[in-house]
């Protein structure tokens, strides 16, 4: 048996084309271009690479992109000031703070100053709380939202299923667990202190992995026929690797997301969807 590979790259292309048309219609109707501002402090290569990727995605769908870059030695107060200026700017609809920040800065304290109405990455505590309590409007972090969308498009049935999420970050693991719970899965969240992780994973009808350890999950951790969602992205000498060992997992799973070409491309398109949502909410106010 070989798992059906879920083509996130293909679905993302299709969704981007649809989104581009929606954004064109929005601009025509309101004379407002949805705009995403990205705040970067310092010149970390991963953050810069992510900023370039976001800029390309914005261009592809007709979202305006604005880069706000502060020098690496900027103080917490300067970062807060820049963020607050973006909060006040009516031409900016979505704001993202790029990670990693220089070690001297406190990310959580900075994010507390982000306007929740512009928090398209879903990282402000108010949006996390709204997601947990299912009180719209809220922004769902793009990576888990994109992963769920990929499963929905593949016709995955969630209700009553055993779901295991490995990883409990605020940006991937925890919100993914919430989204599965809201779809009536029975959810277990596993992490670095989980005892006998392979046995926990083997319980899963839907196994989602967001750890960042390349090829950690092997086929013997997977229940035959399970749906496996791999959020891991680690650059190795052998190229981009997910958290799952693709060959052995694909031999056991019913469906799985490949790396590359699975959850990654869905993240970008979901972020753009969130920017359009923010712009819609702004014009409705
Ligand atoms: P974090 O480092 O914030 O979280 C990793 C989680 O994995 C933690 O909860 C940690 O547990 C857990 N973990 C670490 N080691 C183990 C282990 N040996 N066994 C079980 N659990 C373990 O990472 P992120 O959530 O930000 O990212 C996870 C992965 O997803 C990364 O590869 C990242 O690159 C990728 N990613 C992909 C995106 C995409 O678009 N596809 C977007 C964002 C991230 P503990 O809490 O106990 O420390």
Automatic annotation (TrEMBL):
> Per the database record, which ranges form the Tetrahydrofolate dehydrogenase/cyclohydrolase NAD(P)-binding domain?
141-281
Q: What is this protein called?
A: Bifunctional protein FolD
What's the subunit arrangement here?
Homodimer.
Q: Name one GO cellular component term.
A: cytosol
Domain Tetrahydrofolate dehydrogenase/cyclohydrolase catalytic per the UniProt entry, residue ranges:
6-121
The entry marks the following residues as binding NADP(+), namely 167-169, 233
HAMAP family, alphabetized: THF_DHG_CYH (MF_01576)
Q: Supply the alphabetized keyword list.
A: Amino-acid biosynthesis, Histidine biosynthesis, Hydrolase, Methionine biosynthesis, Multifunctional enzyme, NADP, One-carbon metabolism, Oxidoreductase, Purine biosynthesis
- Function of this protein? Catalyzes the oxidation of 5,10-methylenetetrahydrofolate to 5,10-methenyltetrahydrofolate and then the hydrolysis of 5,10-methenyltetrahydrofolate to 10-formyltetrahydrofolate.
Pathway membership, UniProt:
One-carbon metabolism; tetrahydrofolate interconversion
User: Which molecular function term from Gene Ontology is one that the record holds?
Assistant: methenyltetrahydrofolate cyclohydrolase activity
The source's domain of life comes to Bacteria
* EC annotation from Swiss-Prot or TrEMBL: 1.5.1.5, 3.5.4.9
Asked if ATP-binding is a keyword of the record, the answer is no
InterPro entries the UniProt entry points to: Aminoacid_DH-like_N_sf (IPR046346), NAD(P)-bd_dom_sf (IPR036291), THF_DH/CycHdrlase (IPR000672), THF_DH/CycHdrlase_cat_dom (IPR020630), THF_DH/CycHdrlase_NAD-bd_dom (IPR020631)
**Reactions accelerated catalytically:** (6R)-5,10-methylene-5,6,7,8-tetrahydrofolate + NADP(+) = (6R)-5,10-methenyltetrahydrofolate + NADPH; (6R)-5,10-methenyltetrahydrofolate + H2O = (6R)-10-formyltetrahydrofolate + H(+)
Q: What is the similarity comment for this entry? A: Belongs to the tetrahydrofolate dehydrogenase/cyclohydrolase family.
Q: Which SUPFAM superfamilies match?
A: Aminoacid dehydrogenase-like, N-terminal domain (SSF53223), NAD(P)-binding Rossmann-fold domains (SSF51735)
One Pfam family matching this protein:
THF_DHG_CYH_C
Q: Name one GO biological process term.
A: methionine biosynthetic process
């Amino acid at each position: 048996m070989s798992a059906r590979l879920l083509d996130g790259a293909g679905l993302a292309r299709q969704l981007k084309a649809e989104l581009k048309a929606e954004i064109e219609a929005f601009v025509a109707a309101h004379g407002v271009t949805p705009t995403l501002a990205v705040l970067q402090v310092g010149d970390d290569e991963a953050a810069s690479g992510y900023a370039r990727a976001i800029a390309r995605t914005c261009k592809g769908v007709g979202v305006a992109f604005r880069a706000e870059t502060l020098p690496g030695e900027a103080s917490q107060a300067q970062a807060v000031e820049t963020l607050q200026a973006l909060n006040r700017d009516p031409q900016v609809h979505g704001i993202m703070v790029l990670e990693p920040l220089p070690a001297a800065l406190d990310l959580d304290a900075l994010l507390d100053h982000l306007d929740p109405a512009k928090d398209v990455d879903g990282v402000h505590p108010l949006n996390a709380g709204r997601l947990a309590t299912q009180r719209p409007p809220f922004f769902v972090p793009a990576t888990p939202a994109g992963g769920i969308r990929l499963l929905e498009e593949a016709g995955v049935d969630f209700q009553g299923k055993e779901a295991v999420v490995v990883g409990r970050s605020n940006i991937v693991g925890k919100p993914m667990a919430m989204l599965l719970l809201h779809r009536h899965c029975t959810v277990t969240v596993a992490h670095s202190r989980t005892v006998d992780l392979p046995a926990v994973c083997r319980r899963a009808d839907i196994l989602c992995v967001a750890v960042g350890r390349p090829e950690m999950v092997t086929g013997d951790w997977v229940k035959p026929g399970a749906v496996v969602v791999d959020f891991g992205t680690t650059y190795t000498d052998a190229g981009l690797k997910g958290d799952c060992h693709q060959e052995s997992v694909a031999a056991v799973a019913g469906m799985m997301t490949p790396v590359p070409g699975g959850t990654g491309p869905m993240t970008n398109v979901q972020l753009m969807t969130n920017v359009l949502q923010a712009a819609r909410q702004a014009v409705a106010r």
